[in-house]
Amino acid sequence: MMKLTHKERRRVILTGIICFFIIGLCIISSVDNIIKIGQKKEEKKELTQRLNNLKDEEETLSDDVEKLKNPEYAARYAREKYLYSKNGEKILKID
């Protein structure tokens, strides 16, 4: 086996330290990216749920708009919801 001179030994140690430093940075960067990916997946899941809720709400509101185009339904809805009355009609509110 060949003996290394002082300069060669120093160069090998320095190269090893630099390699370990670079590998460490790569590992830290990878772990950070894995954590960010997990957070983004969770955020995507929450936003997908919110989108589905908003689509359901939009569908309900669209149905209400279609129903309110019918004058009879609109009049009945106004009487029930906002206590409007026809001429000569009295409203009794019972709690």
TrEMBL record:
Residues 37-64 form a coiled coil. The keyword Phosphoprotein does not apply. Keywords: Coiled coil, Membrane, Transmembrane, Transmembrane helix. The keyword Transmembrane applies. GO terms for biological process: cell division. The chain crosses the membrane at residues 12-31. This is Septum formation initiator family protein.
